[in-house]
Amino acid sequence: MRTISYGQAINEALAEEMDRDGDVILYGLDVAAWGGIFNITKGLLERFGPERVFDSPISESVMVGAGVGAAIMGLRPVVELQYADFILVAGDEIFLKAGMWRYMHGGAFKVPLVVRLPSGATGAGPEHSTCPEAYVMHSPGLLCAVPSTAADAKALLKEAIRLDNPVMFFEHRRLYQKRDEVPEGDVTLPFGKGVIRREGRHVTVVAWQYMLSRALKAAELLEQEGIEVEIFDPRTLSPFDSGTLIESVKKTGACLVVEEGYRRLGVGAEIGAILMEQAFGYLDRPFRRLAIPDVPMASVKPLVDRVLPSVEAICDVCRELAA
Amino acid sequence: MTAADIVMPMFGQAMEFGVLVEWLTADGAEVAAGQPVASIESDKATYEIEAPVAGMIRHRVAIGAEVPVGDLLAVIGGAQAAGAVETPAASAAPALAPAATPAPARADGRVLASPRARELARAIGVDLAGVTTARADGVIVAADVERHGAAPPAPSAGTMTPLSPLRRATARRLAQSWTQAPHFTQMIEVDASALVAAQAAIRAGRLACSLNDILIRAAALTMADFPDLNASFEDDALQPLPDIAVGLAVATEAGLAVPVVRNAARRSLDEIAAETRRLIDLGKQGRIGAQDMGRASLTLSNLGRYGVAFGTPVLNLGEPVLVFIGAIEEKAVGIDHEIVLQPRTMLSICYDHRVVDGLRAAQFSQRLKQRLEALEDVLPGETEPSPTEPGGARFADGRVKLRLGEADLLVGAKDARLLSIAAALAALTAELPKLGPSARKLRGIEIRLEDGLAATLLCESEAQVARIGRAIEAADIATYSTAILRAELRPARGGGA
User: Fold this and answer.
1) Where would I find the Peripheral subunit-binding (PSBD) domain in this sequence (chain B) (predicted)?
2) Counted domains in chain B
3) Does A253 sit within 8 Å of B116, measured CB to CB?
4) Residue A138 falls in the annotated catalytic set
5) Between the CA atoms of B233, B239, B244 and B246, what dihedral angle is there, to the nearest 10 degrees?
6) CA distance B71 to chain A (A)
7) Is B114 in the same domain as B70?
8) Mutate which of B30, B58, B146, B147 to test chain A, going by most A C-beta atoms within 10 A?
9) Could you read off the pLDDT tens digit of each residue along chain B, which spans 497 residues?
10) The CATH number of the domain where B267 resides is what?
11) Are residues B214 and B335 in the same domain?
């Protein structure tokens, strides 16, 4: 199978969906003439023209608000926010309009909006390098995708564009160059169906995107010590595939969530609560989390390395859980 | 991923607990679906439990644990990815600290234990206060409870080991039967040539039953010849038993069950086979209920596969006869002044002397021997008229038979789903609604899951058989054509009434 990068996969998904459906439009800061600040949308302006691919002014509220309106009126807008952190700038439009209006209006219309959110720790500080999935997961009405491979990124983005509810689509910046096998053609993945990336019987580790690569590395090291780590990649956080996770925990009796968001009331906290509610009798070890400490995200690389869950930290917690 | 819980099945009406006698697979081992994983003891017998799905098994109770019916014994997780190579290091469980230290006593007297450990301790009746852990946090985990449960009780001089309620009940029933019923056992050797031939027919798929079904029918027919034996000695009187029920205590490849086949003398071999399969299926699901258990007229014990030649059995409480069948072995016997090799087996037939005297018992023993040697009225004969009324649907030879008239369409398939398709196609055929009442019976067809499957559709005319045959070959079923083994026309037995 051919190998392309995560970024190319997203570009392909956009191009294919715009080709398939004339209602799909794409806009955001520098997505058109520049081709996106991370080079993801290159070539789309040339291919689909300025009516469907255009740059927008620097106002995230306006960008998402316009997207909500366009979606309600029948288009399928894909909005790029440049940094995932900016969901808070556009908070009212995302959380209270996009997520809630279809409910509030008794289903009178659909909101087929996709907001693309490049995320992840790059040393750009608390305003430009966080992974704010937990905010989205917390708020009703929003779907949340966190693809970890190029194939998943393409398939989930294509699915996101076709869904009739708003999707917050997190693209991890440290994955953009990562190359994977991606099938040709029209492949989509359903939301709410995670995948076991590695099988093991001692500890279940939940991880996605950049943290998934660290978890996989830790699992390789631990295998040499006789500790078998099972790794679950949820693919989407809303909806969350608790069924697959619980089946895994039934086997291992232990669960660690590794996330790149803040620890307190983070994604891991919710997963822990799910396990307490639905798999209490199967837990044989305390539920554990590794996340960013509850301090503003670091801005310089040595400190970023300090606060991101490391391969060593994952190994340490797994050793404790397997003992 | 598929995963499944294995729970303590209910093997008898009075069964409340079972004892986990032995794990047949190691904790953490990969097991195949259908593989025996545990040996369970109830008050009646010892059973093997099979894995319902493939995957990694995690033990949840320790050997010797007394587990209430329905409680968790083990969990099977999803199967390992195909081709995954297990390194020696990976298969070794993480090493525990060598010395187990008691969980630190807490001022409030509470014991720290994981939810899983608590569930396990409750299931196997372990007091967590006595369990130790080597973990630094002092929290008892499931493995600690399992180790505790598996540790043999410290044998201190002069202390007795109390039996569990289940073991006590079993002991009481056996002692009661042994002390109250004067047992005597007659051993009689049988020429097993006919049984071996029947076994070959079964293996070849020509006979859809098991050897035990043949034994059940032979024993039931023999009991029917001796109605005076079919009684229980109670209160200084013989209480006739309500019907001829045969209990079967056999460890088989397919797992274990103790079915009681009621009215066994009046059932055809097909019907007995259908009934034992139903009971074994129920047993696999742990759902044998009170209606399928209880006192039998006689119980069959077949330990031949273990090479046991003969035995001196103990009667089940209240039952007059127990037939123990030994291993079938080739032996040199003298026939007409020549030594020939012949498959032989020994029957050890145990009787309650209060119900039957030695002479009558010998007649019973002899009759059963003759019946097993000839198998004349045991196996379905070619000329035997079919007992079912025309228009009825019933089981026969493990195949689904649909009786519509004078001709059979036999459809064999590798997969039970195909039989469903075949039956559905037949039902959908335009001709069938015209058949009136018999068409409705079509819906009552039950499809059996087993090897060597076949469906028999009996039709009114050859033209109809041809139409149904075309329907089966046509359309969607064509994609399954390689799985369909044969479709042939056979003359019906007994003819249309």
Assistant:
1) 112-149
2) 4
3) yes
4) no
5) -30
6) 13
7) no
8) B58
9) 567 888 888 776 567 778 888 888 888 888 988 888 988 887 666 778 888 888 889 888 888 888 888 888 998 886 443 333 333 333 333 333 334 444 444 556 678 899 999 988 888 888 888 888 888 878 899 988 888 876 655 555 566 666 655 566 667 777 888 988 999 999 999 999 889 888 888 888 788 888 889 999 999 999 999 999 999 888 888 888 888 999 876 443 434 456 688 888 888 888 898 888 888 777 766 666 656 777 789 998 888 878 888 889 899 888 999 999 999 988 888 877 788 888 899 999 999 999 999 999 999 999 999 999 988 888 876 333 333 333 333 222 333 344 333 444 444 444 444 555 555 555 544 344 444 333 333 333 333 333 334 455 555 556 655 665 665 555 344 333 333 434 444 444 444 33
10) 3.30.559.10
11) yes
- C-alpha–C-alpha distance, residues B93 and A322, integer Å: 9
* B256 backbone dihedrals φ, ψ, rounded to 5°: -125, 140
CB under 8 Å to B434, separation ≥6 — which residues?
none
Q: How far apart are the first and last CA of chain A?
A: 40
Q: Which residues in A have their CB inside 8 Å of a CB on B? A: 196, 199, 201-202, 223-228, 244, 247-248, 250-253, 280-286, 319, 322-323
Q: How many CB atoms lie within 10 A of CB B485?
A: 16
Contacts of A225 in chain B (CB under 8 A): 89, 94
Q: What ipTM describes this predicted complex?
A: 0.70
Same-domain check for residues B361 and B398: no
Q: Which domain holds residue B136?
A: 101-150
In A, minimum Cα distance to B145 occurs at A284
Judge: A250–B95 Cβ closer than 8 Å, yes or no. Answer: no
Query: Euclidean distance between the first and final Cα of chain B, in Å?
Result: 54
How many pairs of residues across A and B have Cβ atoms under 8 Å apart? 77
CA pair distance B399, B419, nearest whole angstrom: 9
- Domains in chain A (CATH in brackets) are 3-181 (3.40.50.970), 195-322 (3.40.50.920)
Q: Among the three residues B339, B374, B409, which one is the final residue of a domain in this structure?
A: B374
CA B83/CA B105 separation, integer angstroms: 47
d(CA A8, CA A20): 18
Please answer yes or no on whether B114 and A201 come within 8 Å at the CB atom.
Answer: no
Please choose, from the candidates B311, B341, B342, B315, the residue with its C-alpha nearest in 3D space to the C-alpha of residue B326: B311
Cα–Cα distance for residue pair B472/B422, rounded to 1 Å: 6
Shared-domain flag, residues B296 and B424 = no
Q: Which of A128, A138, A172, A202 is flagged as catalytic?
A: A128
